[in-house]
Amino acid sequence: MSNSKDNIKKGSCPVYKKCGGCQLQNLTYEEQLKYKQNKVKRLLEKFCPVDPIIGMDNPYHYRNKVQAAFWTDKKGKIISGVYQSGTHHIVGIDSCQTEDIIADKIIVAVRKLLPSFKLTTYNEDAGKGFLRHILVKRGFSTNQIMLVLVTGTPVFPSKNNFVKAILKQFPAITTIVQNINPYRTNLVLGDNQKILYGKGYIEDILCECKFRISPKSFYQINPVQTEILYSKAIEFANLNGNETVLDTYCGIGTIGIIAAKHGAGKVIGAELNGDAVRDAIVNARTNNLKNIRFFKADAGEFMHNISSENEKPDVVFMDPPRAGSDTKFLDSLIKMSPNTVVYVSCNPETLARDLEYLTKSSVFKVKKIQPVDMFPHTAHIECVVLISDIRNKSTKR
Ligand code: SAH
User: Fold this and answer.
1) Catalytic position from the list 13, 250, 346, 383
2) Ligand 1 mean position, distance from CA 190 (Å)
3) What is the per-residue pLDDT across 129-159, written as a single tens digit (0 to 9) for each?
4) Which residue's alpha carbon is nearest to atom 1 within ligand 1?
5) What pTM did the predictor assign?
6) Are 68 and 3 in contact (CB under 8 A)?
């Protein structure tokens, strides 16, 4: 087929079954989009008609954040790759059809350098060894690259020479960070980190705004589709310049900052991760925005406090993790009843649950549902939903 969407044969990845990360590789991209559209319809059509899913023109190598785990097999060979879905078994891979090509090359290069520096891999069972994971993040618009080496111990033998060697092969790397994770945990990143080279963060540009991204901050992994997703969210908010806007579960402040640039009167953001909040504060400054503040808080707690102060925001953006929101948050939202809620969701099941809760209140009605394919070849589905206060006659949104 000449269409670039289908230029890689379905199921052509050699580790498709072993890895389990791309659950839909048995389908062509067109079939995947149809499958996702139908799933969203099945779960959400009862609230409002579902707009056609927005897919990618080129749905390959879209991931700008790539992680690899390291392991030494019984013969002493070092393997890097991904965890088989739902297990702790590492599937060795050198490249992946969804991952950034340069990021994959950096991971292989680090693996090949390890023996010459006598650096070991971390053994989880023994709780011993050096390199656990690698994380590479690349700024799609700026081309800045961050390499994070996650190590089981703080001591990094031949650190300077190792850094020199990897930079020699990849001069495009702009920062290298050592993250220390000595814990028996499924979490990739530990609490402590040292900057080995560069600034310790990268920057990227989305919807004409500049964002700083730290190793631990959440940042959408598909920059091409993220611009589409955020533009839809801003379109749904229909800002006119005077609104008080809340950006909840705001990460590094992306949606709130773009809303402020697009004319929101005042923006208040809330996020649980302290590193992300720090990035959000810097990002507001970088983009010359004075009408925006960020708080480190549980979103439900934050909403509860705002509602007790009798604040009435005009627009609330909410972008919770896969588990969705909670009743503390949703009850406060119903109490404050903003004219417009824009719900960005990465899980249509929890989205359906939360929409059920919100519409049951007879305060809100779902007006628009727009699925966006942020994760081609995987079963993950992202949606932007416009919810309006039905009692507000002035709301012609
Ligand atoms: N809106 C951002 C981030 C979305 S991801 C963006 O588009 O980039 C969801 C975010 O919710 C993550 O940054 C996560 O750290 C944060 N989060 C998770 N649980 C939370 C909670 N209970 N309260 C506030 N933020 C939370």
Assistant:
1) 346
2) 18
3) 999 999 999 999 999 999 999 999 999 999 9
4) 250
5) 0.91
6) no
Find where tokens 């773009």 sit.
Answer: 258
Q: How many A from CA of 298 to the centre of ligand 1?
A: 9
**Beta strands at 90-92 and 78-83: parallel, antiparallel or unpaired:** antiparallel
With CA atoms as reference, report the closest residue to 56 among 374, 366, 302: 374
Are 27 and 44 in contact by the 8 Å Cβ rule? The answer is no
- H helices within the chain, ranges in order? 16-19, 29-44, 101-113, 159-169, 223-237, 254-261, 274-286, 299-308, 327-336, 348-360
Whether 48 is catalytic: no
Q: What 8-state DSSP symbol labels residue 61?
A: S
Say if CB 182 and CB 190 are below 8 A apart: yes
Q: Which residues line ligand 1 (CB under 6 A)?
A: 218-220, 249-251, 254-255, 270-273, 276, 298-299, 319, 321
Helix then strand count (H, E) for the chain reads 10, 16
The pLDDT of residue 397: 45
What is the distance between the alpha carbons of residues 175 and 167, in angstroms, rounded to a whole number? Answer: 10
Q: Which residue, chain included where needed, has tokens 């007790």?
A: 308
User: What is the pLDDT, as a whole number, of residue 184?
Assistant: 86
Q: Tell me, in angstroms, the distance from the centre of ligand 1 to residue 166's CA.
A: 33
Interval between CA 276 and ligand 1 midpoint (Å):
9
Q: Per residue in 265-282, pLDDT tens?
A: 999 999 999 999 999 999
Report the pLDDT value the prediction gives residue 127, as an integer from 0 to 100. 85
pLDDT interval class at 1 (50, 70, 90): very low
Segment 279-301 mean pLDDT: 96
- Taking the C-alpha atoms of residue 371 and residue 378, their distance in angstroms, rounded to an integer, is 14
Instruction: Classify the C-alpha dihedral 367-371-374-379 as positive or negative.
Output: positive
The secondary element (H helix, E strand) that includes residue 133 is strand 131-138
Residue 219 CA: which ligand 1 atom is closest? 8
Interatomic CA distance for residues 340 and 176, integer angstroms? 42
Task: Please tell me the distance from the alpha carbon of residue 184 to that of residue 274, in angstroms, as a whole number.
Answer: 22
Structure token pair of residue 56: 């990618």
Identify the band that residue 105 occupies on the pLDDT scale cut at 50, 70 and 90: very high
- The DSSP secondary-structure symbol of 154 reads S
